[in-house]
Design a protein that fits this description.
369 residues; 4-stranded antiparallel β-sheet; 14 helices
């Protein structure tokens, strides 16, 4: 390490120096022709783009977008805060409601990695609980395990397992934690099972916060747009903390078009198609000896345990990029995003090829080496 690097590192707080950054699907720098690794939508958007008035600062919370998203979620505009992806919502909640070196957040592992990274960044402790407790434990057991944690993150449907926490259980947890903790329901994938949304709890519970995004079903991952939904009093301190101009005028223009009534109807049609394609993929996986265990759940992805982790390397050699995972201490898990019918056909070709004698011989050679 150079003297300059050593001097810069010496200025870092201990929690930042020890921080393990979140590794996103795109940060892995893989190459391929079929991309099913980031839970993106396969559908392109045809939108009109205006680049006028860029010499002026934008509306910090663009009213048309706020009003349309409030209508979509059957809430009032005061219940909606627009953010740079749901990730900014996570960061704002931790920064606003948690005191560094004192408070903790509760997670149910395995789950989305940005909750931990954000807490580590702000020197907030992690109360690491399990998905098994969340799904199988009673509300009383869960609340006891949450203890004094200030924020409770429930990814619903959960990434990467797809598991779904029943709305009645979320309500019971929120009831028991009223005045003690915020229950944050991350609904990045809720459009794939909209009847399970916790937005219907917001008017009743001041400690329920819902995170949303346009990155998945709305097919705008590149726009980096999300929403934090809660009672006005819960959002008020967050509005003090958020950057003064978090949403660019260009982003606001695109987002407004994406959540117009006709666009929402189109999104729902696409979700129906993707859910159908997912069912087809699950059938293929059930018929394939390559998959030892399949976590179907909800959302636009399927996570599975591979019979041989070298199958992932074979997929990459074919230009098929999926997301390799270490789950439950095992590094042979794979998450497959639901792409177009043509993209999923590449998955079928890969699965079928794994059963050929040539592939078996190749794998045997890898084991020897």
């Amino acid at each position: 390490m150079s003297n300059e690097s050593a001097q810069a590192t010496s200025l870092l707080p201990k929690n930042i120096a020890a921080l393990a950054a979140y590794s996103s699907a795109k940060s892995e720098k893989l190459t391929g022709t079929t991309w099913l690794n980031a839970n993106e939508s396969p559908y392109d958007k045809n939108l009109e783009l205006s680049i006028e008035d860029l010499n002026r600062y934008p509306d910090p919370q663009p009213q048309l977008v706020i009003d349309r998203y409030a209508a979509y979620t059957e809430l009032e505009s005061e219940n909606v805060l627009m953010t740079r992806g749901a990730d900014e919502g996570i960061e704002l909640l931790v920064r606003t409601y948690c005191e560094p070196a004192k408070d903790s957040i509760a997670l149910f592992l395995p789950t989305y990695g940005m909750y931990k990274v954000t807490a580590d960044t702000h020197n907030v402790s992690i109360n690491a609980l399990t998905q098994e407790l969340l799904l199988s434990g009673s509300a009383d057991e869960i609340v006891a395990a949450v203890g004094s944690s200030k924020l409770v993150f429930i990814c619903n449907p959960n990434n990467p397992t797809g598991s779904l926490t029943p709305l009645d259980k979320v309500k019971a947890i929120a009831t028991a934690l009223m005045g003690k903790a915020l229950v944050i329901v991350d609904e990045a994938y809720i459009e794939f099972c909209p009847e399970q949304s916790a937005t219907k709890l917001i008017n009743e519970f001041s400690n329920v916060v819902v995170l949303r995004t346009l990155s998945k079903a709305f097919a705008l991952a590149g726009l980096r747009t999300g929403f934090t939904l809660a009672q006005a009093a819960t959002l008020a301190p967050i509005r003090k903390v958020i950057a003064p101009y978090p949403v660019s005028g260009v982003v606001a223009s695109i987002a407004a078009q994406a959540i117009a009534p006709d666009a929402i109807t189109s999104m729902r049609r696409q979700v129906t198609i993707l859910n159908s394609l997912k069912a087809k993929l699950v059938d293929w996986l059930n018929a394939s000896p390559a998959a030892l265990k399949i976590l179907t759940g909800e959302g636009n992805f399927v996570t599975l345990k591979l019979a041989d982790k070298n199958y992932f390397k074979i997929a990459l050699e074919q230009g098929l990029v999926m997301r390799a995972f270490t789950l439950y201490g095992e590094d042979d898990w794979l998450r497959i995003s639901i792409g177009s019918e043509q993209e999923l056909e590449q998955v079928k070709i890969w699965l079928d090829g794994l059963q050929t004698p040539a592939t078996a011989a190749s794998l045997a050679g890898n084991e020897v080496s």
